[in-house]
UniProtKB/TrEMBL annotation:
Gene: nnrD
YjeF N-terminal domain location: 20-203
Enzyme type, top EC level: lyase
Gene Ontology biological process: metabolite repair; nicotinamide nucleotide metabolic process
The name this protein goes by in its record: ADP-dependent (S)-NAD(P)H-hydrate dehydratase
Database matches in PANTHER family: ATP-DEPENDENT (S)-NAD(P)H-HYDRATE DEHYDRATASE (PTHR12592:SF0), ATP-DEPENDENT (S)-NAD(P)H-HYDRATE DEHYDRATASE FAMILY MEMBER (PTHR12592)
UniProt GO MF annotations: ADP-dependent NAD(P)H-hydrate dehydratase activity; ATP binding; metal ion binding; NAD(P)HX epimerase activity
Protein residues bound to AMP: G405
Species, as recorded: Methanoculleus taiwanensis
Length: 467
């Protein structure tokens, strides 16, 4: 895709801390190290400070990467101004920031370590002499009440009367004259500073998106990972069970299968539906199960005779993933919905053909996503909630084997228990493709959908360090 097309699908507006962390980790997976981003950020910060033509610069640095940005700025400013750096010495410092501090020890910069409020008050004269102050105390991950001695730094900076340039995001309570936000604004009114993050780190799903998964609390009990109900089967027996196994491997604690088809699997709870296919006679049983489920996954192996049941499920489900035979008119719409069509199913949903080029396909998916999030499966998956668009290119031609789409739907259902629809669909596409590639590495074109299921946990829960 051309860069101008890709730029169209980058999100606008303010970005949150968790999303920015994901983008940065995606960039690191491409080879842009955290240290290189810090160098770019600090140099840009120094440029903003130089616009004020100061003779005396005071830089306030915390222990995190935001502090490292300030230390890089100090290196670039040392030859044109007198530079003093106040830095928080107590506690563990981010490795990149510690490396920058070591460099400053060999530069023409005066360092002032602080541990407590009296340390800050003893440096009051630096605040009074400064022509400009750089706030690099806390970054995008900051929250809660400001602790000492940071509170004393903020108080003295606010009372100085000189311009304050904030790195990325102002420390809570500080009087920022100018905010230099790196890559994307973290609050309204900030100016954007480009630090070289590739557009693809934002527009394509990557390993950084795994950081969006919530941590399982040490006090978690059975069910904390969510309960998924899979409704399907009849004409095709195995499809709902592939989805259900994927939901378990995707972190759901309890998975029930409501189906006329029974395949004995001890990890799944089977809810028997008499007959050869699902009918309205089964609604009483199904509705009882829908009421207790966090997410319903529906459509796999269902056939064409059960759509009235699908409609009732949609009307009563808080969150639902619709796949395969559920993707027909009238389109089912739950309170929150994910649709996982392949190209043919998408055409059936929308009544129109899909363009050949990726950018046009993405615009088409975005326009169609009026009732929920669409995950259009393909060589490059396209995910949209009607506003945002994300692309995924993980996967392998070996995944043309039957059942991999059922696995994707079940995985999306599990992630939907703890993530919003767009994030759950995006991450499901990424992990499903990664798991398929891992399985094909051992099975080649003889890979089965059940092989893919076994590789989901390793791709979803085992974090890689990209440095």
């Amino acid at each position: 895709m051309k860069s101008e097309d890709l730029r169209e699908f980058c999100e606008g507006g303010v970005v949150g801390a968790s999303r920015m962390r994901a983008i940065e980790e995606n960039a690191m997976a491409f080879g842009l190290s955290s240290s290189r981003m810090m160098e770019s950020a600090g140099r840009a910060l120094a440029g903003a400070v130089l616009a004020y033509r100061p003779d005396n610069v005071l830089i306030l640095c915390g222990k995190g990467k935001n502090g490292g940005d300030g230390m890089v700025a100090a290196r670039y400013l040392r030859s044109v101004a007198e530079v003093h750096v106040i830095y928080l010495e107590s506690g563990e410092m981010a490795p990149e920031t510690a490396a920058e501090l070591l460099l400053l020890r060999h530069s023409a910069v005066t360092l002032h370590p602080i541990r407590c409020t009296p340390d800050v008050l003893a440096l009051r004269r630096l605040f009074e002499r400064a022509d400009i102050i750089v706030d690099a105390l806390l970054g995008t991950g900051a929250g809660g009440t400001l602790r000492e001695p940071l509170g004393a730094c903020v108080e003295l900076a606010n009372g100085s009367g000189v311009p304050i340039v904030a790195a990325d995001l102002p420390t809570p309570g500080i009087r920022a004259t100018r905010i230099c936000s790196f890559h994307r604004p973290k609050q309204e009114g900030a100016e954007i500073v480009d630090i070289g993050i590739p557009l693809e780190a934002e527009c394509y799903v990557g390993p950084g998106d795994l950081t969006l998964l919530p941590e399982r609390a040490s006090s978690a009990h059975k069910g904390a990972g969510g309960e998924v109900l899979v409704v399907g089967g009849g004409p095709y027996q195995g499809a709902p069970y592939l989805a259900a196994l994927a939901a378990l491997r995707g972190g759901a604690d309890i998975v029930r299968v409501a189906s006329p088809a029974f395949i004995p699997m001890p990890d799944l709870i089977y809810e028997r539906l008499e007959g050869t296919h699902i009918t309205e006679d089964h609604l009483e049983t199904i509705m009882r199960l829908v009421d207790r489920a966090d997410v319903v996954v529906c459509g796999m192996g269902l056939g064409t005779e059960s759509h009235a049941v699908v409609q009732v499920i949609a009307e009563n489900a808080a969150r639902a993933v619709f796949d395969a035979d559920a993707l027909r008119h009238p389109l089912p719409v739950a309170d929150e919905t994910i649709y996982t069509p392949h190209a043919g199913e998408f055409a059936r949903m929308t009544g129109g053909d899909i363009p050949g080029d990726l950018a046009s396909r993405a615009r088409t998916v975005r326009s169609a996503a009026a009732n929920g999030t669409i995950l259009l499966k393909g060589a490059v998956d396209i995910i949209s909630d009607g506003t945002r668009v994300r692309f995924n290119r993980t996967g392998t031609p070996a995944m043309t084997v039957g059942g991999t789409g059922d696995v994707l739907a079940g995985l999306a259902g599990a992630l939907f228990c703890t993530l919003p629809a767009f994030e759950a669909a995006s991450l499901a596409a990424y992990v499903n493709g990664r798991a398929g590639t891992a399985a094909a590495g051992h099975r080649g074109n003889g890979m089965l959908a059940t092989d893919l299921v076994e590789y989901i946990p390793g791709e979803l829960f085992v974090r890689k360090n990209y440095g």
